[in-house]
Design goal:
- The structure holds 2 protein chains of 2 kinds.
- In chain A, 0% of the residues lie in helices and 55% in strands.
- Chain A contains no helices and 11 strands.
- Chain A starts with a strand and ends with a strand.
- Chain B is globular.
- The N and C termini of chain B lie far apart (37 Å).
- The chains are: A mainly beta, B mainly beta.
């Protein structure tokens, strides 16, 4: 299957700082990438859809100024959590589409102190 | 009624048993059906992918889709402790993964040695 690389796998930061998470499709080009958030023992919650070269589309209730998404190339999308607060602590997962399938990164555990 | 219903479990079975995991859905527009396996604090891994109705087999895994009943299943034969994970069903319309997936909540599976 196709490989999606996500970094970092874990990050701990102080409240008020910004954190950037990278998502790369290693062996294919992904026109569309997705960002999810997952709380313990819950399913994936779609945050936004990212299309290369255009603005991301955010799901209802997701603050676009808080969660900045950039998809500058066909193999890289980034999610920046700005001015992080403890309530932003969560597991963030990216995914990239290859034809009709969706492949996921390994996830980033964000802990905001 | 949610678009995709999946029993969260936990489902606990002895090693070697046949496991049956199921999802029901309400949207008749769904055409692509997938099963993902997710280990704790990891990204989901695509296990099985089917288009429209029918069966698909890959090693110990068999995926079944019955569009007339809006019901999909994943069977695991000769279950192993390493199969212990959360299994998510996912589905999409004709656009496939590029249009995003609708996920079930996931079933937590425990294989007892």
């Amino acid at each position: 299957g196709a490989v999606v690389s996500q970094h970092p796998s874990r990050v701990i930061c102080k409240s008020g700082t910004s954190v950037k998470i990278e998502c790369r499709s290693l062996d294919f080009q992904a026109t569309t990438m997705f960002w999810y958030r997952q709380f313990p023992k819950q399913s994936l919650m779609l945050m936004a859809t990212s299309n290369e070269g255009s603005k991301a589309t955010y799901e209802q209730g997701v603050e676009k100024d808080k969660f900045l998404i950039n998809h500058a190339s066909l193999t890289l999308s980034t999610l920046t959590v700005t001015s992080a607060h403890p309530e932003d602590s969560s597991f963030y997962i990216c995914s990239a589409s290859l034809r009709e399938k969706l492949f996921f990164g390994s996830g980033t555990q964000l802990s905001v102190l | 009624q949610k678009e995709v219903e999946q029993d969260p479990g936990p489902l606990s079975v002895p090693e070697g048993a046949i496991v049956s995991l199921n999802c029901t859905y309400s949207n008749s527009a769904f055409q692509y059906f997938m099963w993902y396996r997710q280990y704790s604090r990891k990204g989901p891994e695509l296990l099985m992918y089917t288009y429209s109705s029918g069966n698909k087999e890959d090693g110990r895994f068999t995926a079944q889709v019955d569009k007339s009943s809006k019901y999909i299943s994943l069977f695991i034969r000769d279950s192993q402790p390493s199969d212990s994970a959360t299994y998510l069903c996912a589905m999409s319309g004709l656009g496939g993964g590029a249009d995003g997936l609708t996920f079930g909540k996931g079933t937590h599976l425990i294989i007892q040695p």
